[in-house]
Amino acid sequence: MTWPQPLVDDDTYEVVDDAITELARRRGLWMSDANVLHLLASLIAQAERCLPEAVTVARDELSWHDIARLIGTNPVEAQLRFDPASPVADGGGPRTRPPVQQPRTNDKGVSVPT
After folding, report:
1. What is the C-alpha to C-alpha distance for residues 23 and 112, in angstroms, rounded to an integer?
2. Using an 8 Å Cβ cutoff, are 36 and 22 in contact?
3. Cβ-based neighbours of 24, under 8 Å, separated by 6 or more
4. What average pLDDT does range 89-101 have in this prediction?
5. pLDDT over 60 (residue 89)
6. Which site among 17, 66, 99, 104 is 20 to 30 Å from 24 CA-CA?
7. What does the angle CA 6 – CA 53 – CA 15 come to, to the nearest 5 degrees?
8. What region, left, alpha or beta, does residue 72 occupy, with left being phi > 0 and alpha being psi -120 to 50 degrees?
């Protein structure tokens, strides 16, 4: 299958515009030029932090070539940035929300305290 390259169009513009507006509302900011820059940079930074986990999950089904095309780079750069074995892999840093822990179960499938 041929995967699409990143696409910037009216849909992505509207989604980003809505996200900026919603983030401003949540942070109690008005839409000054400086605040819009701050909010846009915050969304970009958050999206960048989401990529390592998304790539890790995608590696179960996709090659480095496929991933590279989807994120708009080449396979060597994608693997260098996201392969855990790479000396410069982007681990994504700490998340603002911890991942959801799956409940522990005993050998009978009954939940046990962690």
Report:
1. 38
2. no
3. 30, 31, 35, 36, 39
4. 53
5. yes
6. 99
7. 40
8. left
Distance between CA atoms of 71 and 78, rounded to whole angstroms? 8
b/e 81-91 (16+ beta carbons within 10 angstroms → b): bbbeeeeeeee
Asked if pLDDT for residue 50 goes beyond 90, the answer is: yes
**105: β partners:** 111
Q: pTM of the prediction?
A: 0.69
Token pair recorded at residue 71: 């994120």
Q: What is the spatial distance between Cα 73 and Cα 55, in angstroms, rounded to a whole number? A: 13
Hey, how many other C-beta atoms are within 10 angstroms of the C-beta on 78? 22
Of residues 94 and 104, the one with the higher pLDDT is 104
